[in-house]
Amino acid sequence: MNTVTDKVRRLMRPEILALSAYHVADATGLVKLDAMENPYVWPEPLKRQWLECLHDVAINRYPDPTSRALRERLRESLGLPAEFELLLGNGSDELIQLILMGVAHAGASVVAPVPTFVMYEMIAKFVGMEFVGVPLAKDFALDLQAMQAAIRIHQPAVVFLAYPNNPTGNLFDASAMDAILQAAPGLVVVDEAYHAFALCSFIDQLRRHDNLLVLRTLSKQGLAGLRLGVLAGDAAWLAEFDKLRLPYNINVLTQASAEFALAHAQVLDTQTAQIRVDREWLYDELGRLPGVHVWPSAANFLLFRTARPANAVFAELRRRGVLIKNLAGAGGALDGCLRVTVGTPQENTLFLDALAQALEST
Ligand SMILES: *Cc1c(COP(=O)(O)O)cnc(C)c1O
């Protein structure tokens, strides 16, 4: 028999057949604290202004192919020194893909500390590269010796360092990152997706390291629906990745909306400042619950472990209307771990109450 399944099996690359698709949980009707979104919407007058601005967008025309006006605004908001360039992606995920497509060849590898953002490994596999995960040390600090050894052995084309790291929430030691930048024979991508909550950056290190690229996104800051990622670095690197970018990857609505949002950055800044305050409150409250261990975080989420099995606690929370992220299946250092995004004060309270009850009933 030659069923479609047989044909699929014969045609597809084995490493693609072996992958599972990136899973997004259904959040219908639940308090959504699973995806590091900013829980706040814009005030009504600002929404109206935004819609007025979209009214004049030429939806019948292709977008500006290089998003020139938006890049200028982003340059200002990042404080990017004049000699460096920006490349925009449909989310930073797309930029990770462009980088790896650019360097992939037989035998080329990617090194990253683990656990970390799963897309580094997934995209490495998409493009046929080897992914080498180097376990983090105690309390998720960088194991500099192990990183240096992996770099020596594998000579990676790219090292990814999420700063702060997802899903652990911590900022790696900057001097250890500096040593990795010195030791790496290829690129080092410092992924600052959570910059709005950590307020630390390697942008000002670009002058010191010609193998450094800094990745940002507007997603966690409050514009996850737009899909806009930003890569900062030397024009010589970005010009190569730009060749791999599909034409018009940043649509007109995203360009206009992101420009508008950056012109009113104060609103997002106030929201993210509130989230930073509430993160500290939630950290303290979580730590008070019996049997809960919570790790400090410089991002907009908290990683924690309970004395009760994580799978049962996760299911019980969902039954009580709260969706968080279950990392129990991720294994390794994340065994038994759960991750919660900092929501509004009301959502945080709902989560804490549901967790307290879940811990009693599981
Ligand atoms: C969420 C996240 C991203 C993805 O951002 P998008 O711009 O939404 O694609 C990238 N890196 C890290 C570390 C993240 O946690």
Explain this structure.
- The protein is an alpha/beta fold and 362 residues long.
- The chain has 2 domains: 10-39 and 267-361, Aspartate Aminotransferase, domain 1; 44-263, Aspartate Aminotransferase, domain 2, CATH 3.40.640.
- 44% of the residues lie in helices and 15% in strands.
- The model has no long low-confidence stretch (mean pLDDT 96).
User: What is the averaged pLDDT score?
Assistant: 96
Biggest sheet statistics = 7 strands, mixed
CATH class of the largest domain: Alpha Beta
Number of domains as seen in the coordinates: 2
Distance N terminus to C terminus? 48 Å
Please trace the helix and strand order, writing H or E for each element: HHEHHEHEHEHEHEHEHEHHHEEHEEEH
Number of strands: 13
Rg over C-alpha atoms, rounded to the nearest angstrom: 21 Å
Which fold name corresponds to the CATH topology of the largest domain?
Answer: Aspartate Aminotransferase, domain 2
The number of helices is: 15
- Taking pLDDT < 50 over at least 5 consecutive residues as the criterion, the unreliable ranges are none
Listed once per kind, the bound small molecules are:
pyridoxal-5'-phosphate
Structural class: alpha/beta
Percentage of residues in helical conformation? 40-55%
Query: Which CATH architecture of the largest domain?
Result: 3-Layer(aba) Sandwich
Essential attributes:
362 residues; globular; single chain; 13 strands; seven-stranded mixed β-sheet; Aspartate Aminotransferase, domain 2; binds pyridoxal-5'-phosphate
